[in-house]
Specification:
CATH topology: Rossmann fold
Order of helices and strands: EHEHEHEHHEHEHHHE
Number of helices: 9
Strand order of the largest sheet: 3-2-1-4-5-6-7
Structural class: alpha/beta
Shape: globular
Distance between the termini: 31 Å
Helix content: 40-55%
Largest sheet: 7 strands, parallel
CATH superfamily: NAD(P)-binding Rossmann-like Domain
Oligomer: single chain
Number of strands: 7
CATH architecture: 3-Layer(aba) Sandwich
Bound molecules: nicotinamide-adenine-dinucleotide
Number of domains: 1
Strand content: 15-25%
Length: 252
């Protein structure tokens, strides 16, 4: 049964494509008013157009999650435009080229952390302030790399472990205040990030599918479904959890 989010206001970062777009569309289909955040104006505009064409309500705010002013502005937009912030999905993230640790450039390490780790921290800081006194649900997007080490991805692995750590610590602080904070930890999902990492050849697609015990890569909708559950009252007793959605990758 589709979740009912009517009357709710949701914010999704990195919603200009991939998992964030699918989540924004699903929340809007459930009746939420959705604020679409992304560094990509084009991607964000496309997501809003898809939502409004389907009869939903959404608006785009350009937001670099590593920038505190951008983050505060998008949270302020949600509150001033739609009256509140009930649901926040901190999804924006990057997973650039891979290299052995000894070959990593410090600026690449810092850039990944500024978006994947600092971005989630800044978003939670502003979102929780907007939710205090009335409650809400926050879902952070971690990764299979939140719970496992991924060879040649030291910065990404560390940043996604940090997302789960931030999720747990903040959940413990705000659970009694009615703000439920959880995370999803996806395996390989067919989005731009995966294409950037492995390419689009039939061999690459087959290798990704074979790596997952379920026999296929994930789709953005697989992850959006879990995010919606964590954002809804159906998961009302779930707090500080990292929900792994990885086709069995981490069961091996
Ligand atoms: N696709 C996968 O295999 C996979 C697996 C595990 C975790 N994830 C995580 O899922 C999340 C979404 O990734 P995706 O797979 O949908 O990739 P994607 O590249 O399709 O989407 C990421 C979006 O984030 C935006 N973005 C990048 N930097 C930003 C910033 N500084 N501020 C705001 N927006 C920014 C991009 O413009 C893009 O629209 C990421 O956190 C990623 O690490 C993805």
């Amino acid at each position: 049964m589709a979740q009912d989010f009517s009357g709710k206001v949701a914010l999704v970062t990195g919603a200009g494509g991939g998992i964030g777009r699918a989540t924004a569309q699903a929340l809007a289909a459930g009746g939420a008013k959705v604020v679409v955040g992304d560094v990509s104006q084009k991607g964000g505009d496309e997501t809003v157009a898809l939502i409004t064409a389907a009869g939903g309500t959404a608006s785009f705010v350009r937001c670099d999650v590593s920038n505190p002013d951008d983050v505060q502005a998008i949270v302020d937009h949600a509150v001033s435009t739609y009256g509140a912030l009930d649901i926040a999905v901190n999804n924006a993230g990057v997973d650039p080229e891979v290299a052995p640790v000894a070959e990593w450039k410090l600026e690449d390490f810092d850039r990944i952390h500024s978006i994947n780790t600092r971005g989630v921290f800044l978003c939670m800081k502003a979102e929780i302030a907007a939710m205090e006194g009335r409650g809400g649900a926050i879902v952070n997007v971690g990764s299979f790399a939140s719970v496992s080490g991924v060879a040649n991805k030291p910065a990404y692995t560390a940043s996604k472990h940090a997302v789960l750590g931030l999720t747990r610590a903040a959940a413990l602080q705000y659970g009694r205040a009615g703000i439920r904070i959880n995370a999803v930890c996806p395996g390989g999902v067919r989005t731009a990030i995966l294409v950037d990492n492995v390419g689009t050849s039939a061999e690459a697609e087959a290798a990704v599918a074979a790596a997952h015990p379920i026999g296929r890569a994930g789709e953005s909708q697989d992850i959006a479904e879990a995010i919606l559950w964590l954002a809804s009252p159906a998961s009302g007793f779930v707090l500080g959890h990292g929900l792994v959605i990885d086709g069995g990758l981490s069961a091996q």
